[in-house]
Write a structure and sequence with these properties.
alpha+beta, 42% helix, 556 residues, 5-stranded antiparallel sheet, Beta-Lactamase
Length: 556
Amino acid sequence: MKKRVENLILAKQKSTVAMALSLANDKKLSQNMLNNKIEKKYYEKLINNFKENTQYKNIWIQIIDKDSISLYRSWTDKSGDSLKKIRTDLKEVFRTKKVIYSISSGKFDLTIKAIVPILQDTQVKGMIEVISHFNSISKEMRKFDIDSIVILEKEFTKRIEQPFTNKFIDDYYIANIDAPESILGYLQKGEIDKHFAKAYSVHNGRIITSHKLKSLDGKTLGYYIMYKRINAISTMNLDFFMFKWMAFGLVALMALAGVINLAMYYYIRKQKFYYKNIIDSSTNIVIINDEKNIIDVNKIFFKYFYHHSTLDEFTNSYECVCDLFVEENGYLQKERNGIYWIDHVMNNSNNKHKVKIKYESEIYYFSVGISLVSEEKSYYSVVFSDITNEEKYRIELETLTKTDPLTGIGNRRNFHDKLREEKSRANRYDHALSFIMLDIDYFKKVNDEHGHGVGDSVLVEYTKLISSMIRDGDIFCRIGGEEFMLILPHATKNEAGKLAEKIRSSVESYKKVLPITMSFGVIEYIKGEEMEFILKRVDEALYAAKDSGRNMVVCR
């Protein structure tokens, strides 16, 4: 129950971030903020689209300007007030220029928030905040016969001025609008806080447990309390639950050797039966492996490797599931430095391990946990937990934050990350590394005479041209309005200069959209050189090209 709600909360946080990112990339929003004029009907229509086309029915939007003034709130008519003194999270976004998401409480509700900065020329011009609630999560939990109550701590309940749900018990605010009346009635008869501290409890035929809801700074804001009727639990889980309580009773009666011997007799007799049923009931892939070969798998294994219906069929095609591992940075590989993957995980048990698997045309991502279950025969229990959705979200969000939305090449942040990586490789392997900074000549004149739409088309078209002329291993990034950088691993200054001259000549003769020229500065990395000196040298080379008449290459 706890794991399920934790995953649902994380998924909703990521969905909220995705919605906020999509809004932040809306040029209409940037224009509205610059004009200090928010078209309320536009955002009302947008929220209605969220209601009609997603499972999230209570999405709120807040637009905040560069001075932390709230320009628009979708859930109230109040606007124009300053949030500078009361919202420390906004200061963090202004400082880091990064997306943040959190669970938060304020004057209206306990919510899930995502804040995305709106940037213009690397400056934060404002923010878009998307706020979602816990109702879709509690609705999802009901599919598994789990009732939910989302409770705000007393300390924060005092700050609620206009409660969204208008539900309270004692001095606690109830944050999910669909909280079951039967559970609310039950809570009014007893102490609510007795559900907070315990791992779980059993009362009135229900198993009760809770999950802490924490803010960005780790403070406990409230609790997500879950109730499940015991008669709704599957027979096998109930048997296990009852077995656990029997075990506690047996501990108290350890002096009675006969009872212990009897319990051990039944345990050994049923061991094989429980083993197979337990792994088959798991929603994760469970594999029993020796040092090299698969011994057994559970039923869910064949949901993923669907062209095989038995283990024998699978092992006729693959010696090991590791034959399907995709070799990619950040993911587990069949062997690393001569160490087999199972040994690597066991030797680094405190680290988190992920694997990327390609089967037929499908790509899956799993977190991997391994335990030794028999030292005598070196049998291992290997559990693959599906994190495909979470990993795709992470990759998508990472791509969004490192890609220039206009040209599709890397942005300034991506350039700095790649510069650190390539500098480190050049130092380690002692190979050449060169840089080209390029700039469109008189680009302001293009925008002034032809408009920003034509200017954007020029950037897109000539980016495609340059991309077609560089190697697969070269890195091309847009670091400013009309300013670009090329990182060239394994290239000397002379080789980089020849490439720059080839690009310069091609740009001059290309003449698509508009005829333009470019200026180029070229340098080669000096081992041990700091990043700021690299950028200073290549910038000086570019400006030497501009001072010498533009449309030329200067190598320094």
